[in-house]
Every structure is written in structure tokens, then in C-alpha cells.
């Protein structure tokens, strides 16, 4: 609305959901409203990789980070869904997050 | 002589009448179901309802694979195993339940766990496979064998209050044909770390949650089988075009409870279904595929 | 003496362990289920899986209402009725199936159709009602009685390839209390024209479609019962806040298959649950409510 | 985009779905993309009542109109859903249709 000085951080509101047991790593809360900085430290538009990093740093209180990220990306066995589509259809980690996006992290189940 | 004009017996007409009057099934669909052979891997919380509803619908042959026996702790969700059958091999208990639901169904039981050594011979005779297993090693094994043998696969899983379902390798084109449906490895090229795996034994599960997913598996199988004639599929390239591949996610305590997620198509570098496939019929018997090692030791301390 | 410390027997702990380790159930939830009395109206395609999974979960008492006998044409979808039980009253056949799944469940059978005359005495003892019936007259009757007696209601229906489900009168507040959940009449104040009604007998139904809805009914009932203690509900106003009322729609051949629709709250002029309610406990026995006439003659020629 | 003369009809694209058996009245097709005139004959913005009338006149080929409308509104036993909510939450027949709306007509089922 007003002019933004260089040092203020522009944010965008998105929703992030965790399911398949992942919610246990995020305070047992499935749905989170996140105000994500629009740009990363280098000034590039926030993408999914940046979101994952942001969630680890600012949202995840559980110390077992390796149950969410491994080798700087989400661990095998977690599907990332961008607005109800597999992130592989959208460019994976490079997908530039848009205002209002709904990002779901699903841990796959194996029980039967 | 009359038999030539009536492809089903009077009792079968009465039994299946309520689904045969639907245009989605009809006499033709009923005959396709009767000619079909469906293999169910795992006769637990998913396999019980899946096999019960496939038997009810009149699938001609059901193959049942499971090496476990019925336990007390199964009964709350594995509704085909009566209390009096605790201690009995699950495949025999399930076959009894299926016979009671529909004596027209022929059951073949495989009283052992699926392995790389026995998967090819076990799958060979079947038109479609339903994965009702409970661990990642079996899920990769089942999917790999389905791709190599050209069988569509209906896979599901459940834990606690949640369930997931996918129809994979459908249409079941040969490896390298990009018009085929994605396989389990396309969606999950790398297995999850062993310490992230939770079984229903460890994490618990609500009976109706896993029941729901099993019933959905039966439904998806019926949709595939009534579209496709298992006998004539080679001749006509049988497999009709389908909806794009998707993942159905269920969460009992969320709103909405169900979500449908669009999945990717076949992965260009998939180890199983791409032109670069390294998983072949030979690799199962040669011992080059160690699914247990690939997925890491299971039943370790686990948390998620 | 030991019994005082262990509210469940060892066999019950083993049987229910996989759901008791979940925080959504726990020992407390299991005891609530054990104390619960659930009435199932209709033991057909919905009532069979609904009662099977409620029995598996350990609901203490299941009431079963149905005046029909098992027929050949039921078997493809009514999986609790074995082929050998054709000709037997459905409530007795279902009770046998339930006993086999879980001998700890006490079954009460009502071998007659529900009517305005018998509905009050039939419902009185129960904590929750599951409507698995197959006609609009019964659906209005069941809902009206649930509102008058303050019982939550899980209602579902299915036809051909589709199903619908609602949790009604939940929380089950007295008529006139706008914080209660809507009733069937709030959603459908006027009955559909008789010639628009199709039964599963006439229109057909896929077994897993109706099975899915029945399993979902069991799940929603378990969610309500484990939240609410049937014994102490009066004391504590028991019924916890819930999700806003919704309608779940399933369509086997559509994408997405499931939809969740937000429903209205109680209707200000509802004949049953508003301050202006004309349906009362007396109206059932006085003969002033003729559900058959209200809904018109059923089983006429019908098309939709 | 260009100027519209008084006699041209402005339309808006919406999707209309039929389910619960109603699709049988509409050429067995569940999902219809409809270009609905933005205004009714009197010049008022198109509302749901107008849409129902429009569907009867221009989309429904089945002669059994009374299985869809009765007394100038959808017959009892049909739920109208506007963007995944019961139309009673949105003003029922008076709801002014918006471009991109998804309107679902659901015939309730009774089988069990
Ligand atoms: Zn693949
Ligand atoms: Zn009401």
C-alpha cells in the first residue's frame, strides 16, 4: 500500500499444510498460515526451496530436521503438492511461490 | 443348448442384476469381471475389504498372497477374519470369507510373503494387481513386477487417521513407452529413510480409515476391469484412455477429508518404466535387486 | 481386585490396541465406544459395512432394524450376509456376522420396518443413530425422531455410481436451539416428487460405492462417540464443538471423486428443529404424521 | 474488450455440473461449460433463477422438465451448490452469478 523502504521485508500470505504424519513435526498443526518473504537473501523471488528452508528455521520446533529435509531438499518419501498438483509438474524446488498458494507436504504412508 | 444363449446362469443373473442394469457394467462388463484374475498382495486391513467387494462383484479368480496368520490385534479392522480364525493363515481365512460371500469366485492362495524370487511366477497369470501390503520394500517390488509384466496396479496405504491411493502403470504400456501410466518409482524414485517408516502395528490405525481405502481399491479395480477385457486386451490394445494419473489422499479429521492430487507422468529416467530401465525380468531372479537393503532395515525405532 | 485397575480385559487390550495407541482414541475413547449404544436402521448395502466396522471398533451395543430377508440380489454389495443366509431375516444374518467379527458386541435385533408408531421406543435407548435406509419416508422419520429425542444422526445414501453423506442434528440440541446442527428437514424441507425416486433395486448400484458410504458412516459415528461420552453427556453438555455441517458427495467416475459441500445451519422455520416445530414426541403416536403420504407412493415408475 | 453495442449480448463463462442422476436429463453429460448472458430480459444481472430458466430452454434436451423444475424453481430433492456451498448460504435463486462460478445441481439419493 505505502511505499516500502529497501530494508522492509515484503511478504506474501500463503497456506502450508502437513499431512501423513508430518504435522507431528510442526506442533501437531496441519494447516499453517505463513507470511513468506517475497524474496530470498540474494534478492531472488521466493521459491519452494526457500520455503522449505524458511519452514525449517521459523516454523518447525521439532529438532528432528532430518525427518523433513535431507541433502538440502525434502527427504525421500515426502510429496510436495503445489495447488493440488505434484510439484514435479510445476518445476519442483525452482517453482516461484505466488501469493495465495496452497503448498502441501505429504509423507507417504506404508501401512495396510 | 440353452447355455449358448445365456452366458451366465440364472443364479448369476439374480446375484449380479443390480450392477448389470447399470450402463457402466452391463452384461459385457459382468462377463469381463468373470473372466478377470486379480491378485491381492496382503490380506490385512486393506486386503480384507478389497477382496470382499471384488468377490461380491463377481471377479472370476482372486489370488491371495500373505505369509501371516490372523492375530487378535488384526480383528478390529480386518473384517474378513472372524474371531474364531485367530491363528489361521490369513490367506486361508480370507478364502473362507470370500467363499461365503460368493461361491462362484475361485480363490488361489499363496501362503508366503512376496519376494524377488517368487514375484514373477506369482504375478504372471493375473490381469491386475492390488497392493495391500504394509511396507515400502514390498511396494517397490510389486510395482516393479507390474511394470515388467504389464499389469495395472491399484496401490493404497493407511496409517492412523489417513489413507492414500493411486492407480499406477495404467495404461500398462511397456517400459520406455511414455504413454503408459507412471509407476511407484516415478512418484518415489528414492525410498524413504528407514527410520521414517511407521507400520499400523506401531502407529495404530482406525479400522474404517483403512477399510475405506480397501473398498476404494476394489472400486478402482472394477473400473479398470470393466473397461478392459483381460482376454482380448492384446488384440485390441485393450486399455482404454483414462483420467490423468492422480493420488487420492484421505484424512479423517481434516476438512475436506478427501483430496485428489494430479500426479506426474512417467519419469524420463525411471529405473523401471523408462527407456533407461535397469529393472528387468532377469533382475528379479539374478539377485541383483535387494528390496530389503534398498529400503533399509524395517521395524527399527521409528517416529513418523 | 485387579479388575478395578484394568477397565478392559487383556483380550480387549490386544484386540483394540491398534486404535487405542492413537491419541484420537486412547483408553478413554475405547471406554466411550464400549459404553455406546448405536442404532443402525437398515442392514443393506450401507448397514452391512457400517455395522461391521462399528463392531470391529468395539461399540458396546448395536441395535439392528430391518424387516427384510436376505435375497440373492443383495449379495454383491451386502457383504455381511453370506450366501448360505439367503432367506434369513437381515437383522439375524447381520447379528451372526457381527458376532463372528467381535463377540464382545451385544446385538439387539428389531425384525420390522421402522414406523411412526415404533420409532420412539426403538430409538430411546441409543446414543447415536445411523440411517442406512433406502427411501425418503424413512429418512424423514429417522431424522424427526433423532431431533425430538436429541440423538446425533449419521445419514448416507447411494445409487448407481454415487453416494452422499451428512452428519445431522450434531450437536443434538433441543428444537429451537439454533446452535444445534441442521436436521434432514432443514436441508430438504419438501420431499422429492415420488416419480423422481429411484431405489438401488431399480437403478442399480456398484457394491464398493455403497460400501464406501457405509464405511464412512462408521467412521463419522466413531468420531462423534469418541468425542462425546454417552453416559456423561447430560452432565457436561457433552457434545464438543464440531466442524461446520457438510455434505460429502462421491461420484465413482468423476474427477475429483469426492466433494465436500458446506451446508446451511438450522432453518428458522424448520418443522422439526426450530422454535416453530410442529413435529413433537406426541405427533408420532397420534397418527398426525403420515410419512408415506408425505413422500407420496414409492415404487412407482421412476426414471431418475 | 471492444465497445459493445446495445444489441450484442454480453456473456460470462461458467461451469455447471449435474450429479445424482440429473446428468441423465442433460445428455448424460456431467460437466457443461456455459456462456450465460450477463443480464436477463429485463436487464437485471443474471441470477440463479435466470440460469435455471436458461438451462431448461437451451441446454436440457430431455422433455421431462418437471424432473428438474417445479413451480418455477428447482424441484424438491435437488440441492443447488454455488462454489461448493449450499445456495441457501448465498441467497438462493437471487444470487447474482459471477464469471467463473461453478454451479452444481445435485439430485439427492435415497438408495442404501
Ligand atoms: Zn516408473
Ligand atoms: Zn430442521
Automatic annotation (TrEMBL), chains A, D:
InterPro entries referenced in this protein's UniProt entry, alphabetically: Beta-grasp_dom_sf, Mopterin_synth/thiamin_S_b, Urm1
Listed GO biological process terms: protein urmylation; tRNA thio-modification; tRNA wobble uridine modification
Post-translational modification summary for this protein: C-terminal thiocarboxylation occurs in 2 steps, it is first acyl-adenylated (-COAMP) via the hesA/moeB/thiF part of UBA4, then thiocarboxylated (-COSH) via the rhodanese domain of UBA4.
Coiled coil location: none
Keywords on record: Cytoplasm, Isopeptide bond, tRNA processing, Ubl conjugation pathway
Pfam families given in the database record: Urm1 (PF09138)
Placement of covalent cross-link Glycyl lysine isopeptide (Gly-Lys) (interchain with K-? in acceptor proteins): 112
Name used for this protein in its record: Ubiquitin-related modifier 1
Organism: Trichodelitschia bisporula
Amino acid at each position: 500500500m505505502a511505499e516500502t523502504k529497501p530494508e522492509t521485508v515484503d511478504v506474501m500470505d500463503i497456506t502450508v499444510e502437513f499431512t501423513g504424519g508430518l504435522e507431528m513435526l510442526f506442533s501437531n498443526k496441519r494447516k499453517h498460515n505463513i507470511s513468506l518473504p517475497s524474496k530470498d537473501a540474494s534478492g531472488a523471488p521466493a521459491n519452494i526451496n526457500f520455503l522449505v528452508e524458511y519452514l525449517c528455521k521459523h516454523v518447525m520446533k521439532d529438532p528432528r530436521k532430518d525427518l523433513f529435509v535431507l541433502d538440502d531438499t525434502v527427504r525421500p518419501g515426502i510429496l510436495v503438492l503445489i495447488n493440488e498438483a505434484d510439484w514435479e509438474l510445476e518445476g519442483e524446488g525452482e517453482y516461484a511461490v505466488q501469493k495465495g498458494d496452497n503448498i502441501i507436504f505429504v509423507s507417504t504412508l506404508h501401512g495396510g | 443348448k440353452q447355455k449358448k444363449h445365456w452366458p451366465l446362469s440364472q443364479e448369476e443373473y439374480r446375484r449380479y442384476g443390480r450392477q448389470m442394469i447399470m450402463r457402466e457394467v452391463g452384461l459385457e462388463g459382468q462377463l469381463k469381471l468373470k473372466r478377470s484374475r486379480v491378485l491381492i498382495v496382503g490380506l490385512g486391513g486393506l486386503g480384507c475389504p478389497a477382496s470382499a467387494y471384488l468377490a461380491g462383484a463377481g471377479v472370476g479368480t482372486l489370488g491371495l498372497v500373505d505369509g501371516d496368520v490372523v492375530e487378535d490385534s488384526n480383528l478390529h479392522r480386518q473384517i474378513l477374519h472372524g474371531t474364531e480364525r485367530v491363528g489361521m493363515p490369513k490367506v486361508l481365512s480370507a478364502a473362507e470369507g470370500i467363499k461365503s460371500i460368493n461361491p462362484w469366485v475361485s480363490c488361489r492362495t499363496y501362503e508366503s510373503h512376496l519376494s524377488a524370487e517368487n514375484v514373477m511366477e506369482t504375478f504372471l497369470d493375473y490381469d491386475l494387481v492390488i497392493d495391500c501390503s504394509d511396507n515400502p520394500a514390498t511396494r517397490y517390488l510389486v510395482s516393479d513386477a507390474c511394470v515388467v509384466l504389464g499389469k495395472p496396479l491399484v496401490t493404497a496405504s493407511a496409517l492412523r487417521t489417513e489413507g492414500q491411493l493411486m492407480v499406477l502403470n495404467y495404461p500398462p504400456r511397456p517400459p520406455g513407452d511414455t504413454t503408459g501410466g507412471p509407476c511407484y518409482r516415478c512418484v518415489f524414485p528414492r525410498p524413504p529413510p528407514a527410520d521414517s517408516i511407521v507400520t499400523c502395528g506401531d502407529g495404530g490405525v482406525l479400522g474404517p480409515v483403512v477399510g475405506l481405502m480397501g473398498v476404494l481399491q476394489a472400486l478402482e479395480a472394477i473400473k479398470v476391469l470393466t473397461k478392459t477385457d483381460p482376454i482380448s486386451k492384446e488384440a485390441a490394445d485393450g486399455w482404454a484412455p483414462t483420467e490423468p494419473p492422480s493420488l487420492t489422499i484421505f484424512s479423517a479429521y481434516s476438512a475436506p477429508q478427501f483430496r485428489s492430487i494430479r500426479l506426474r507422468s512417467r519419469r524420463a529416467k525411471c529405473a523401471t518404466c523408462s527407456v533407461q530401465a535397469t529393472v528387468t525380468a532377469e533382475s528379479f531372479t539374478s539377485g541383483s535387486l535387494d528390496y530389503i537393503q534398498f529400503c533399509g532395515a524395517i521395524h527399527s525405532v521409528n517416529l513418523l
